[in-house]
Amino acid sequence: MTLKLFAHISVIFLLVSCLEDPKANDPRIFSITPAYTTVSAFAQTLDFTVSCDRGWQYSLGSTRWAKVSDLAKDRGYIAISITMNEDEADRRDTLTLRSGTLMRQAIITQKGLSSIISPLNPVLTGSETGTITITATGDWSVEVVKASRVEPWLSVEPSSGHAGTSTISLIPSDANLNVGDRSTQLRFDLGGNTISTTVTQKQTDALLPETDEIAIDYNAQEFSLTLGSNVDFAFELDCDWLHEAGTKALDSNTFRFLADANEASSAREGHIRFFSDAVSETVSVIQAGRPAFLSSSAYGIYDREGRVLREVVRGKDQTAVLSTRNACSLRMQNATTGECIALEGLPVSIKAGDRFKATVAGNMTALPHVPGSSIQFTVIKTEGRKLWLLCSDGIGYIVKK
Fold first, then answer.
1. In terms of pTM, does the model score above 0.85?
2. 113 half-sphere exposure, CB direction, 13 A CA radius
3. In terms of CATH architecture, what is 207-287?
């Protein structure tokens, strides 16, 4: 009786001891290999070896990019499949094994795409060439993905290469003068793995006047200027003889200005400056001085200083002969010598401010223009049939039509 009681007490004591010792079921051998692994950004399967002389369980972190794809506990094998890391930064997950009270972990680090292509999404400014670096383990190629109905604005050089680190030039065809940024895709092929990246070209703030210089005659007048732009802008005038016209603009980017008459004999220059926060453009306005020969009234030809070059003694000997429906020939004859000069191709209807081309002909000696030459004229004054004509070279004609 005593011996049986002692035996029962021993069994109970042993059972209690086992229950109180949680490590009693811990394995003597427990490891996972590799414990740390760093892999590329591409999708792949990772193999792990588990050594454990007791049963074990596994778990993965909360990420969605890693999952157990194969498991053989009897052989101590577990496979983890991971998707491509399409982010620029690295990412990590942990494979955790438990047996008894023991835990073993394997840290999985997957590199980001920036470890292969850097920068992953480059940004270009203006028309400057950018670069992108590719680190490959084998042959690679890259192409610009062409968007439908959009002219390609980017080229790459080189477009293929071999294992190692290579630098690719990103070459824009021009600056981006559109409103807003523009972008295009690059598609890389790395041994069957495809990576797509986006190249963005920032908007280049642009103010594009149709000309950088406007030439006008001495008269008070209105003129227009058209400006292309992709930004909000303003303008300013730097002189008191230029003014914004009150007339309606031809379109949203066409501006009208007024110039006062220039009563001085010398030309003058003013400026219209268009500006935004980042860019400015200046247009020069050159206004000719008042021609000196305007002080004269005698028919003839005058130099730039208003001196007589050839005088028609009797203005009544001028005749206008209609040569076509739209033009006429005007002959100026010196009644004393019989010499004459003719301007062929004058418009039939003519007024101050008109510009036209006429051909000079005649037999006057010491003509300022070679007979047969085509000269640009501006009508700067009219009095009845009398015309003051200014040539583009500054020579003046006073004629009667």
1. no
2. 20
3. Sandwich (2.60)
